[in-house]
Request: fold
Amino acid sequence: MNPLNHVAIIMDGNGRWGLKNKNSRNAGHRAGINTVEKIIKETIRNNIKFLTLYAFSTENWKRPKKEIKFLFNLLENFLKNKIEDLNKQKIKLKIIGKKNFSTKLNKLLKTSEKKTHKNKKLQINLALNYGSKTELINAFKELKKKREIINEKNFKKYLQTKNIPDPEILIRTGNTKRLSNFLLWQLAYSEIFFEKKLWPDFNEKDYSKIIKKYKNIKRNFGKI
Ligand code: FPP
Reply:
C-alpha cells in the first residue's frame, strides 16, 4: 500500500452550489466551511500529517469586492471561533501565500500560526493569496541572490513548502480539470483526482474512497 503523508485540495464549486441551492454564491462559501471541518476530521482519522487547502488564489482578487470581503470575514470568524479547538487537537496552521491583507487579518493569521506552531498531529497549510508562479519566481530570485548552484535541493529551500513533503494526492472538486496555478512544482508526481461533486457536497465518504483508491495505485515513478 502506498504511503500517504500529504493531501492537497482545490476546494472548487462553492459559488455554483450557493447559486443552485440558496440563490447566493456566498451561501456556498459558508457551506464550504462545513466541508473543511469534515475533511480535517477525516484527515486526522487517516493519520495523514499534511493537508493543504487552496482557499484564495492570487487570481481570486478579480472577483467582486463584496464576495472577497465575505470570504475574508468567513475566514476571520473561522479562525476566531476554531483556533483554540484546532490547537487542542494538536493541529498546526501554516499560511502559504503572501499575507498582505488588512492589518487585523494579518495579525490574526500570524497569532494563529504562532499559537499552533509546535503542534505535530496534523499540519494544515492554508493557501491564501497564493499563486504557484509567483512562488517559483521568488524561489529563483533567492537562488540568484544567494549565488547558489541551481539544483532541486537548493531550489526547494526557497519554496513556501520547504520541509513539507510533496502531496501524494491532489483532489479538485467542482467538475473542473485544471490546476489553477496551485503547487505546480510540488504536484509533479501527485496522483490527481478530479471530483464531480461541488465542494459543499463533498464528504468524508468521497474522501475515504479517494484515499483507498490512491493506496492501491501502482506508482512507478518512471520505472516499470
Ligand atoms: C472556490 O469555489 C472556492 C473558493 C475560492 C474559496 C474557498 C473557501 C472556502 C471553502 C471557505 C474558506 C476556507 C477556510 C479554510 C476558512 P468557487 O467560488 O470558485 O466556485 P465556483 O467555481 O462554483 O464559482
